[in-house]
Design a protein that fits this description.
The chain has about 375 residues and is mainly alpha-helical. Helix content is about 40%, strand content about 5%. The chain has helices at about 15-25, 25-40, 55-60, 70-75, 90-95, 95-100, 100-115, 115-125, 135-140, 205-210, 240-250, 255-270, 275-290, 290-295, 300-305, 335-360, 365-370; strands spanning about 80, 85, 140-145, 150, 195, 210-215.
C-alpha cells in the first residue's frame, strides 16, 4: 500500500498548475492533489476505468460547481481512453506508486514458498513470479470434500473414542526396544483435541487405541523450550545510547557498561531518569568536589543510577580534631576544587565583614583584625 506520492518541485510554476489555479482557484489545485492521493491508495496504476465524472469529483472532494472540476481536468490532468479515464502521465511521474500492486503480488509469491512449497515450485517452473491475493488464498487453503469447508488446520477425521488413557512411554528395556503398548501419542500441553485423529488406514484403532497428531497445514513443528529466556541488553541503536555515552565518558569508573546501560533504559522506560545534561553535570561536580570520590570510592555507574545519584551533593569530610580540642575553622579541603571554593567563600566573607566595619565608622585598624573567614581576631598587645 502506498503511503506517499511524488510531487515535482516545479509543480506550482508549471503552466498547467497556474491555469488550474486561475480557472478553479486554489480549491481546484487542492482537489487535484486529493485525487492523486486517492488514486495512490485505490487505483495505484492510475486507471480510473469504471468511474464517471461524478465519481471522480467525489474522489477529489470537489466542493464547487458540478462538472466544473472534471470538465476542466479532462484533457489536461485526465485522459480518456476506450477503456475509461486514466490519470495523465501517472506512470511517468509516479512510477513507484504505480507499481505498488505488482510489488505486493511478488511479495505474496515469495511468501507462498514458506506456506505451500510444492505450488511455489510448480508456478516458478512455469515462469510465474507474482500471484494475486485471490490466487494466494486458493493455494494456501485446504478443501474438505466431506463438508466443503476451507480451513488451514487439520481437523478430526473419524476419530474413535478412546476407551482408556494411553500408557506412558517407557525407557528402553534391556532388549533395546520400547514398551509395546506405549505406541500412543500424548497431546502436548495446549494442543486442541481436534488436532488428533484415529489410526491411519491399515491399522486397527480399536486394538491399539493409538492416536496420530495432525500438524496444522503449512506449519513446521517447533521445539518448545522450558528454559527461561535470557534478557538481552537493550539495543545500542536506541536514541538514548548517545545520551548514555555522553555520561559514561565522564564517569570515573569504566566498568559494568552493559549493566549501566540496562539500568539507564529501565529508568528511562518508567519515566524516572533525569535529563542527560543533569546527570553529566552531577558526575563532573562529584568527581571534582566529593571527598570520597577523590579517594577512589566511586560506585559502579549502574548502582549510582539506581540510587539516582544525580540528586546527591558533594560530600566534604569534616576537619579532624586535634586531641580533645576541636579544630577551629572550615572543614579540611582534600581536593583542589574544594580548596578553590573555600578560598572564594573566605574572600567573600572578608569583604562582607569589611563593609560592615566601614559602615559603622571603624578605621582600617579594625579591618586588619578581620580573619580570612570574616571572624574578628583579638587585638594585638
Amino acid at each position: 500500500m502506498n503511503t506517499d506520492i511524488r510531487l515535482s518541485v516545479g509543480f506550482w510554476q508549471h503552466p498547467k498548475t497556474r491555469k488550474t489555479a486561475k480557472r478553479l482557484g486554489l480549491e481546484g489545485v487542492r482537489s487535484l492533489q486529493i485525487l492523486w492521493l486517492w488514486a495512490a491508495l485505490n487505483r495505484p496504476d492510475g486507471n480510473l476505468s469504471g468511474m464517471d465524472w461524478e465519481d471522480i469529483e467525489l474522489a477529489s472532494d470537489w466542493q464547487g460547481e458540478e462538472r466544473a472540476f472534471f470538465d476542466f481536468c479532462l484533457g489536461i490532468w485526465i485522459d480518456e481512453t476506450p477503456q475509461g479515464y486514466v490519470l495523465h502521465d501517472w506512470k511517468d511521474h509516479n512510477s513507484w506508486a504505480s507499481e505498488a500492486d505488482e510489488r505486493s503480488d511478488k511479495a505474496r509469491f515469495s511468501r507462498l514458498a514458506t506456506v505451500n512449497r510444492e505450488a511455489y515450485e510448480q508456478l516458478k517452473a512455469e515462469g510465474i513470479n507474482a500471484i494475486s491475493k485471490e490466487e494466494y488464498d486458493r493455494l494456501t487453503t485446504v478443501q474438505r470434500p466431506s463438508d466443503d469447508r476451507r480451513t488451514n488446520v487439520g481437523r478430526i477425521v473419524n476419530a474413535p473414542p478412546t476407551p482408556a488413557p494411553s500408557p506412558a512411554l517407557t525407557h528402553k528395556d534391556k532388549g533395546g526396544g520400547y514398551n509395546a503398548g506405549a505406541r500412543d501419542a500424548h497431546p502436548m500441553p495446549g494442543t486442541p483435541p481436534e488436532q488428533f485423529r484415529g489410526e491411519p488406514d491399515g491399522l486397527n484403532s480399536a486394538d491399539s487405541g493409538s492416536a496420530v497428531l495432525v500438524q496444522p497445514f503449512s506449519e513446521a513443528s517447533a521445539t518448545v523450550s522450558s528454559m527461561p529466556k535470557r534478557t538481552d541488553c537493550p539495543s545500542k541503536g536506541n536514541p538514548q545510547w548517545q545520551c548514555f555515552l555522553s555520561c559514561w565518558q565522564v564517569y570515573p569508573v569504566k566498568q559494568g557498561q552493559e549493566a549501566a546501560w540496562r539500568e539507564w533504559m529501565r529508568l528511562h522506560s518508567n519515566g524516572t531518569l533525569a535529563e542527560p545534561y543533569v546527570i553529566r553535570d552531577a558526575i563532573i561536580l562529584l568527581a571534582q568536589e566529593d571527598s570520597r570520590w577523590q579517594r577512589g570510592k566511586v560506585p559502579n555507574m549502574a548502582k549510582w543510577l539506581n540510587g539516582k545519584g544525580w540528586n546527591d551533593c558533594p560530600y566534604v569530610e569534616p576537619a579532624a580534631a586535634q586531641g580533645n580540642v576541636p579544630r577551629d575553622g572550615p572543614p579540611v579541603a582534600r581536593t583542589q576544587a574544594q580548596r578553590n571554593r573555600q578560598n572564594l567563600e573566605g574572600l567573600a566573607a572578608f569583604v562582607r565583614a569589611a563593609e560592615r566595619e566601614l559602615t559603622h565608622g571603624n578605621t582600617t585598624a579594625h579591618i586588619g583584625r578581620i580573619g580570612t573567614h570574616g571572624h574578628s581576631l583579638p587585638a594585638a598587645n
